[in-house]
Write a structure and sequence with these properties.
Layout (H helix, E strand, L loop, with lengths): L1 H13 L3 H77 L8 H8 L13 H9 L8 H12 L1 H23 L22 H9 L10 H5 L2 H35 L1
Helix pairs in contact: 1-2, 2-4, 2-9, 5-9, 6-9
């Protein structure tokens, strides 16, 4: 093609047809410009297509992360709902001296209180895209803004869970250490809510026989003001954690609806 145009130019010059040569030159320039514009447009189209695919892949992977978050949040909600129920039961016995729990029931209701939950944040996809600068080319800025807020709020759940953990370590465990743990049996962990299987632990404890003939004064422990104060404090923190969980779950559901 280039050779063809060169031949035409040379013929016009030899024939001394300057005006036609000038028109031809302008036409050739126009064709070159049009070719460049078409090439740029194709390149832009390809870039936009790549950016669109990258954005779609990002949101698909974020949706997978949110599914994992949802599973965790449902577990946390179950954990703290059950915890509040156990605290409620124990507080009922504390405030009613006319009823007795029995040592087995006491063990089953206090044992779950030793356990706490660790929050998990599945934010790998979001942080990776943020670090790489991919957000600059994404079109859905409003959805990105909502995702940013969702992940920025994670410290709220960390703070709430940490509050419960510290309260267990600083208040509950010292109270329970005053009581011999000879009440523990294979059934003691039946009400425990845990992501891992803890039954082997209780089976092991049950195989170690206690020959001391000590009867734990669980009833006396239940009647102490310090036990009542602990149960109320734990319940307040558990309700706080549950509120944070529900709020985050609502944000997650809203995001999922938009992504789906």
């Amino acid at each position: 093609m280039i050779k063809f145009f060169r031949h035409i130019r040379q013929r016009l010059i030899k024939e001394n047809r300057f005006s036609k040569y000038l028109l031809y030159a302008i036409g050739e320039i126009v064709l070159v410009v049009i070719g460049i514009l078409i090439a740029l447009q194709i390149n832009n189209w390809n870039e936009e297509r790549k950016e669109k695919i990258a954005e779609e892949n990002f949101f698909e992977n974020v949706l997978i992360d949110l599914e994992k978050d949802q599973t965790k949040l449902e577990y946390y909600q179950k954990f703290y709902t059950k915890r509040i129920a156990y605290l409620d039961t124990l507080l009922t016995y504390v405030r009613n001296p006319n009823i007795k729990m029995g040592i087995e029931k006491f063990g089953m209701y206090v044992e779950p209180l030793f356990y706490a939950s660790d929050p998990t944040n599945n934010n790998t996809t979001f942080e990776s895209a943020k670090t790489s600068g991919a957000f600059n080319t994404f079109k859905d800025k409003e959805l990105l803004k909502q995702l940013s807020q969702y992940y920025a709020d994670f410290p709220l759940i960390e703070k709430s869970f940490s509050s419960v953990q510290r309260f267990i370590e600083n208040q509950f465990e010292p109270i329970m250490y005053t009581l011999p743990e000879s009440y523990m049996t294979q059934e003691t962990g039946n009400l425990v809510i845990s992501e891992g299987d803890v039954q082997d632990f209780y089976n092991k404890i049950a195989t170690i026989k206690d020959f001391r003939n000590i009867t734990p004064d669980y009833d006396g422990l239940l009647r102490t003001p310090i036990m009542e104060n602990y149960l109320i404090g734990d319940m307040g923190r558990s309700f706080g954690a549950l509120a944070v969980i529900k709020a985050r779950y609502g944000m997650l559901r809203n995001l999922k609806l938009k992504l789906e």
